[in-house]
Amino acid sequence: MELSWQVTIPVTSLKRFLNDHGVSHRVFSDLKQSGTIRVNDQVVTPAVDLNVGDTVTITLPAELADDAVATSMVPITVLFENRDWLVVDKPAGLNVVPGPANRTDTLVNRIKGYWATEQAENQVPHILTRLDRFTNGVVWVARHRLANSLASQMQAAHQVDKRYLAVVSGQLIDDHGMIDAPLAGDPAGYNQMVSPDGKPAQTEYWVEQRFPNATLVRVKLHTGRTHQIRAHFASLNHPLVGDGLYDGPMIAGMTRQALQAQSLAFTDPFTGEDRAFTSTTPADWQAMLQQLSEE
Predict the structure, then answer these.
(1) Residue 3, SS3?
(2) Which pLDDT does position 33 carry in this prediction?
(3) Contacts of 266 (CB under 8 A, 6+ apart)
(4) What is the spatial distance between Cα 282 and Cα 244, in angstroms, rounded to a whole number?
(5) CB atoms near residue 127 (< 10 Å)
(6) Which end of the chain is more exposed for a tag (fewer CB within 10 A), N or C?
């Protein structure tokens, strides 16, 4: 894969120039080992000096499929795809990455099958927004090393807007709130818990609708901790409906945590375009909301 930029301001070094365009140390090492760097169509070493007006082109080696990862031909729901990104609407019940419980039919396995059918140049999915198995919604995937590097920098700089919908048990009093409480793994289980020894975690929410025994909220994550939304609302004694791990009640026919990654938005670092994606509300959510409204 080939990418080009023009030098518009004085720079100190080629490595610094590429780093300013998202080429991390790891990607730069890959370039030196198995890629090429050209300045004005001439192959150069990293020690070359750059001048304003020069054109810098890099060629990244293709990322071949991992033979150790099984291929699944189960279809995926693609919301967007181009050279750099793949955005998928993941159903509830599907693991994102292979693990002991499932090594043959996860989202990663299905993407591998999808890209094999497409005969894509790069066939290694870099998962950027991982969801729990029973959480449905938008999953963002980088299609190559540089996209992965840039997206990681954007997330660290809080330049990616991720919004969720959740139905929590009981009625929240405030229409808007910020849960600012550190989270750590519970040594006695698989859940997360609020702890002064945990990592910082901030969850902002807005009440969308109140029901007699539950509340629909829109949530924005300011950090990305494991089980963050689930653990934070449980700490307020409002665990998510259907969330057995956090003692959420099984009401309105919902037997999984009532959580979906509803939307994702960011400014594309390659094109400068604003991109926004929204998940489709699944049938079990529609049935749950209908039942809650009738109670």
Answers:
(1) strand
(2) 83
(3) 151, 154, 159, 160, 161, 274, 275
(4) 20
(5) 18
(6) C
Residue 246 contacts residue 183 (beta carbons within 8 Å):
no
Q: Report the amino acid identity of residue 106.
A: T
Lookup: tokens for 48: 């070359």
Low-confidence stretches of the chain (pLDDT beneath 50)? none
Write down the pLDDT at residue 35: 87
CA distance 50 to 32: 17
What is the predicted pLDDT for the residue at 229?
98
Q: Which H/E stretch holds residue 177? A: strand 176-180
Cβ-in-10-Å burial (0-12, 13-18, 19+) of 184 comes to middle
The confidence score (pLDDT) of residue 22 equals 85
DSSP letter (8 states) at residue 102:
B
Which residue has tokens 């409906």? 241
- CB burial of 211-248 (b: ≥16 within 10 Å; e: otherwise) equals beebbbbbbebeeebbbbbbbbbbbeebbbbbbebbeb
User: Is residue 206 a contact partner of residue 163, using CB atoms and an 8 Å limit?
Assistant: no
pTM across the whole model:
0.92
**Alpha-carbon gap, residue 26 to 21, rounded angstroms:** 14
To the query of whether residue 132 is one of the catalytic residues in this protein, the response is: yes
CA distances from 149 to 26, 84, 144, 145, 146 (A): 9, 11, 9, 6, 5
Per the CB < 8 A criterion, the answer to whether 259 and 241 are in contact is: no
Both structure tokens of 216: 């629909």
Q: Is the torsion defined by CA of 227, 164, 200, 175 positive or negative?
A: negative
Other Cβ atoms less than 10 A from the Cβ of 96: the count is: 21
Q: Which of 132, 174, 186, 197 is catalytic?
A: 132
* Burial (CB count within 10 angstroms: exposed 0-12, middle 13-18, buried 19+), residue 71: middle
- Please report the pLDDT score of residue 48 as a whole number: 86
